[in-house]
Automatic annotation (TrEMBL):
InterPro entries for the chain: Homeodomain-like_sf, HTH_TetR, Tet_transcr_reg_TetR-rel_C_sf
Record domain HTH tetR-type: where: 1-59
Keyword hit for Transferase: no
Pfam short name (any one): TetR_N
Top-level taxon of origin: Bacteria
Residue ranges of DNA binding: 22-41
Identification of the protein by name: TetR/AcrR family transcriptional regulator
Keywords: DNA-binding, Transcription, Transcription regulation
Amino acid sequence: MRETLMAAARLTVQAHGYNALSFRELAQEVGIKSASVHHHFPTKGALAAALARRYTEDGVAYLSDLLARSSNPTWCMDRYVEIFRSALTNDNRMCLCGIMSAELDDLPPEVRSEIDAFTATNVEWIAKVLEFSKSKTSAQERLDRAIAIFSAIEGAQLVARGGQDISIFDRSVQAYRRAGLIP
């Protein structure tokens, strides 16, 4: 039941954000009583933190697999960009941590720390991919470029979602590539 609750909650948050998460509506959706949700997650913050932690763990596994399969920066970044694009193709949803970041002031500390971990994980992975390009940049320059890439992709996803037009995302990524931001 915990997994079923997390799956339903993830879809809700990706579509509507943290503030839309309701234990009563979640319970109704999965066919249990609201008190049963509290059995698995004592608070909304605990549920959101668990969602963000799982999202990050799943992402780490996927990204680690990409690095194990190829050291081609373009190939790796193509697969990375596809993660964000696929959320849009799934009923115009957002990256879970990206959409919760927009509600940062409303998030409990345990959720904020998981969002920070997600961001750090993504930036570190992108910096590793940038090392493959063999450019003569410092580690700090790669980290700076990595945060720019992460921000650009999250931003493109947000703007495409708002416009309800996935081609905005695609054109943005192509422009980032032409500009030399993304390998």
